[in-house]
Amino acid sequence: MIRRDALWEYVRGSLWVLPTMSVLAALAAGSLLSLVRVGPRSPLAFQGTSDDARTLLIGIAGTMVTVIALLLGLTVVALQLSSTQYSPRLLRNFLRDRPNQVVLSVFVATFAYSAAGLYTVGVSGGSRTATFPRLAVSGALVLLFVSLGLLVFFADHLVHSIQVDAIMRVVERGTLAVIGDGLFTGGQDAPDVPGWAVPVTSPRSGYVQAVRPGRLLAQAGRGVCLRLRPRVGEHVVAGTTLAWIWAASPSDPAPDPRAFAPVLDAGVRIGFERTLEQDAALGIRQLVDIACKALSPAVNDPYTAVQAVDHLSVIFCALATRPLGNHIIRGDAGAAVIVPGRRFPDYLAVMCGLIRRYGAREPTIADALLRLLGNCAAVARDDPERAAAIEEQARIVLADAEREIAQPADLALPHAEAEAVRQALAGQGPASASPASSPGEPPGPPPPS
Questions:
Q1: CA distances (Å), 20 to each of 101, 104, 121, in order?
Q2: Which residues contact 418 (CB under 8 A, 6 or more apart)?
Q3: Is the sign of the CA dihedral 261, 265, 269, 272 positive or negative?
Q4: Which is nearest to 136 in space by CA: 288, 9, 27, 263?
Q5: What local confidence, expressed as pLDDT, does residue 445 receive?
Q6: Where do the DSSP E strands lie in 83-205?
Q7: Which position has the higher pLDDT, 36 or 220?
């Protein structure tokens, strides 16, 4: 299962797999169409001579080479722009973009179809011939017009895909999908690792990309508990502890760590990069990167940072309603598998901390963060732990803003939003103090105390 998931994840992020399959499909289609003999009077048949057909195929093949070079050049420019302007962790999203893969596949298939046709059209046994597969040549014309339409579509898609709003929307949708389907259900109290537990070392270095606890439990054995040390998305070094295993009591025979090494290899996937399969923190990291890059002196674009916080607000409101923390599944005779997970305060502290430190001097950033916290408070005020984390982050954001912002008038809106957070946590008012205001507009007067 892990190997199949890893292969699928690799295929999704590769630019060569789909084009290679399209080339094979084009060659197969050309071979089949070459077997169909139609006369020149057929409306589907190419009406020219064999020399005209060869000239047409040569022209299509040469044109497609130029177009493919143009497409790859534009793609590299888009990747470079997104990497330097927003975040290098966004490159994977562009590589996984299915329209880009489809357009490149059609272009490569058109070239392969036309180039392969030169071996049969107008040539037979090394000599020129007047007979040729007219229907197959007509297929090259169809592919040419399809490629022309896709070229226009690709230009439009590329322009829209490098817009910061579209980039952040893609990250938001992907992260919400992980939260809805791929994120482990937590909230259970995990037992501590006992003193008689045996460590199992990691066979390789990399990031924990995916964990299959059901597979681990099925192979763990009766009465054996297994607890992973790193969380999904964290880095592990070869030779360090990947998991602990222990029997139900110290008097029972200790599990053999060498026997459990294949079990962990089958149930825990470690790769050279983080993926979004079970790691919602990666999507949060991507949006935080965009916000921090926008707040850097080289870019100095606070409004983009505010937009990133708005998208983070959607993600954190979804996290605030889900049980988070350690994921535990139990089997027969006390067997258990424990997958450590992040709790809501962990997610919140990392996100707020980075953006707050970069944007402490900008009132609109403090306002956006407090508005995010107010939205979270509106949906999570019944959870004492999450309410305390929201209240603590609101206090820190406001304290940093008061320390860094010299003009008291600029603090009016952050003060109002902080009050809205307190009211939302207390269940006394709306989550936002000023829904009609927008970043960049002068704030109105603070509410009366």
A1: 11, 10, 24
A2: 370, 394, 397, 398
A3: positive
A4: 27
A5: 45
A6: 123-124, 127-128, 198-201
A7: 36
Domain(s) of CATH 3.90.1170.30: residues in the chain: 177-301+309-315+322-342
pLDDT at 175: 95
Report residue 232 as tokens.
Answer: 């999904």
pLDDT band at 13 (very low <50, low <70, confident <90, very high): confident
- The answer, yes or no, to whether residue 374 has pLDDT greater than 60, is yes
Using a 10 angstrom Cβ sphere, with 0-12 exposed, 13-18 middle and 19 or more buried, the burial of residue 382 is exposed
Task: State the CB neighbour count (10 A cutoff) for residue 44.
Answer: 11
Tokens in use for 147? 């490629």
> What's the burial of 195, exposed, middle or buried (CB within 10 Å: 0-12/13-18/19+)?
exposed
Residue 193: is it exposed, middle or buried by C-beta count within 10 angstroms (0-12/13-18/19+)? middle
User: Exposed, middle or buried, 370 (CB in 10 Å: 0-12/13-18/19+)?
Assistant: buried
Mean pLDDT of the region 18-43: 89
Judge whether 276 and 175 are in contact, CB under 8 Å: yes
Could you give the CA distance from residue 110 to residue 99 in angstroms, rounded to a whole number?
17
**Both tokens of residue 343?**
């709790």
Measure the CA angle with vertex 114, ends 110 and 120; round to 5°: 150
| Residue 180 per-residue DSSP state | I
Tokens standing for residue 270: 């470690």
Residues in the chain: 449
CATH architecture of 177-301+309-315+322-342: Alpha-Beta Complex (3.90)
H or E segment to which residue 383 belongs: none
* pLDDT on residue 446: 45
Residue 438 is which amino acid? S
DSSP H helix total and E strand total for the chain = 15, 10
Smallest CA-to-CA distance from 31 within 126, 125, 112, 123 is with: 112
Q: Cα–Cα distance between 303 and 127 in angstroms, integer?
A: 68
CA distance 48 to 247: 80
**Listing from the earlier edge strand, what are the strands of the sheet with 235-236?**
235-236, 206-211, 268-271
